[in-house]
UniProtKB/TrEMBL annotation:
This is TBC1 domain family member 30. Residues 182-383 form the Rab-GAP TBC domain. It comes from the Eukaryota. One of its GO terms (cellular component) is endoplasmic reticulum. It comes from Trichinella murrelli.
Length: 507
């Protein structure tokens, strides 16, 4: 596909000489540069106060002690902020020096007592953590398949440094994710970050270089390669789950950082949803969030899932239809019949509208947040097949309702109502869905790799229809009142349906 924003960076070279760019091209480049400078100003200058840390002390265990723990109530001959020097002490009277000595001894005693209390709290927390890890290790071994390697399962919050130690930790985390309740919330941030940092280390990414380049408040030499549409999107992007201006600014900083890091993808519609959820888990630490986002998009998802072609996404939408025909044949036949007898001249597979949005936002707007977190845990631990497993489990859950649809339009209306119910599922329903995700097939999903490969080589590129398809993706993802994107426009607009069908045309 031709990139309309592509121009030479400064001037065109002809026979060793430089020909000045046309005025229109220069103006366009200047507008892009000004827009990016405005965005950087918006994202970095308001955040000066945000970056300041409070007076909180952090011990090695990660627990915090407020500076107020070290406050003192005695009268002070030494005013706060006073710096004692040899000269100033020589000028003091003997009685004043005695008072200073008494004060210092008292403050040292109080500080020592406070430090001892903090160390005791840390030791108690570490002991409790050690006991919980041992308990979890015992539970994992009890729930295991009793293989010889299962006896080595040992739960730890942090993986050991060696590759074998990391694999042991990974297997333990995979086992915990399957237990009722899944990964404890307090462990989730560490788990995601450990997975991300291990990936960055494995592929040899120089994080210090990436950090300096992607979070720079100044224009980089290669920022001209950013597509103008990315800059426009970042100016206006948001996410209704964010409560403060600070959170929105940090979100945009992460999105811009990823666009700078991976210019091939840049910014994809739906990234704001993905990045916002990552930021929440990473407690708004933008560098940690970028690490997780890089690992998720580059390592967990297949190639071309979020690029301009959405080719791998298209493959998964076809694969899901294939899996439905095998795993839920009654539902598949019913939907196929509704598609065939639709009043529209062309009706795409009915689930496409929904699966597209589910996959692009990783179910972030489909289920209650605690279930979304569990799905993401499984995705990072087991890989992208979790997307297809969750989609299958969801259709299995709602199949008895969808079988009542008597037309394609009726199916879309029904799915719109069901989507609101999915967002309010109870904990028992959520647990049942997760258990179905894990129990429906062995890992890796039998035949899935071959199925993806076969469709990958058979899918026709979007060519002229891609513009309509991408427009439809954007309209679905921007629909705030309709989480599944099942709007009347989608139901009634023939052109939109036809554009959705283009992903599945075979050579």
């Amino acid at each position: 596909m031709v990139n309309e924003d592509f121009e030479p960076s400064s001037s065109t070279v002809v026979h060793g000489g430089q020909v000045p760019l046309p005025v229109q091209v220069q103006l366009k480049q200047n507008r892009r540069r000004e827009s990016l400078e405005e965005l950087l100003q918006q994202l970095y200058n308001p955040c000066v106060a945000i970056e300041r840390r409070g007076s909180t002390l952090v011990d090695e265990s990660g627990s915090t002690t407020d500076a107020s723990d070290f406050s003192f109530s005695l009268p002070r001959p030494i005013r706060p902020g006073t710096r004692l020097t040899e000269q100033s002490l020589n000028e003091q009277k003997k009685s004043e020096l005695i008072a200073i000595t008494v004060q210092l001894r008292h403050e040292i005693h109080l500080a020592s007592q406070s430090l001892i209390r903090a160390l005791k709290r840390r030791n108690q927390q570490m002991s409790k953590l050690h006991s919980l890890c041992n308990l979890l290790s015992a539970i994992l071994q009890a729930y295991s398949s009793k293989r010889s390697e299962d006896t080595k399962l040992k739960f730890t919050v942090e993986p050991m440094k060696s590759e074998s130690g990391f694999q042991q930790w990974l297997e333990a985390m995979r086992a915990v994710a399957r237990l009722p309740g899944g990964i404890p919330h307090d462990f989730r941030r560490k788990m995601w970050l450990n997975l991300a940092e291990n990936y960055l280390k494995t592929v040899g990414i120089d994080w210090n270089e990436v950090r300096l380049r992607t979070f720079s408040e100044k224009l980089n030499p290669d920022d001209n390669e950013l597509n103008m549409q990315i800059v426009k999107d970042l100016h206006r992007t948001g996410w209704t789950g964010l409560n403060t201006d600070r959170e929105r600014i940090l979100l945009k900083r992460v999105l811009l950082a990823y666009a700078r890091y991976n210019k091939t993808i840049g910014y994809c519609q739906g990234f704001n949803v993905i990045a916002a959820l990552i930021m929440e888990v990473m407690e708004n630490k933008e560098e940690h969030a970028l690490k997780v986002m890089i690992m998720l998009i580059e390592h967990v998802f297949p190639n071309d899932y979020f690029d301009q072609t959405l080719r791998a996404l298209s493959v998964d939408m076809i694969v899901l239809n294939d899996l439905l025909s095998v795993r839920l044949p009654k539902l598949y036949s019913h939907l196929e019949s509704l598609q065939k007898h639709s009043d529209s001249e062309y009706e795409p597979p009915l689930i496409n509208v929904f699966s597209m949005q589910w996959f692009l936002t990783i179910f972030a707007t489909v289920f209650p947040k605690h279930l979304v977190f569990r799905i993401w845990d499984s995705l990072m631990l087991e890989g992208s097949e979790i997307l297809l497993r969750v989609a299958l489990a969801t259709f299995a859950k709602i199949s008895r309702h969808t079988l009542n649809a008597t037309s394609a339009d009726g199916f879309y209306e029904l799915m719109s109502r069901l989507s609101r119910k999915l967002q309010t599922m109870g904990k028992t329903q959520c647990e049942n869905l997760i258990q179905l995700v894990y129990s429906m097939a062995d890992f890796p999903f039998p035949g899935l790799h071959e199925l993806r490969d076969r469709h990958l080589w058979n899918i026709q590129p979007f060519s002229s229809g891609f513009g309509m398809f991408r427009h439809q993706v954007i309209s679905i993802l921007k629909s705030e009142n309709d989480p599944l994107g099942c709007s009347a426009e989608i139901e009634d607009d023939f052109a939109s349906k036809k554009s959705l069908s283009l992903f599945g045309e075979l050579i």
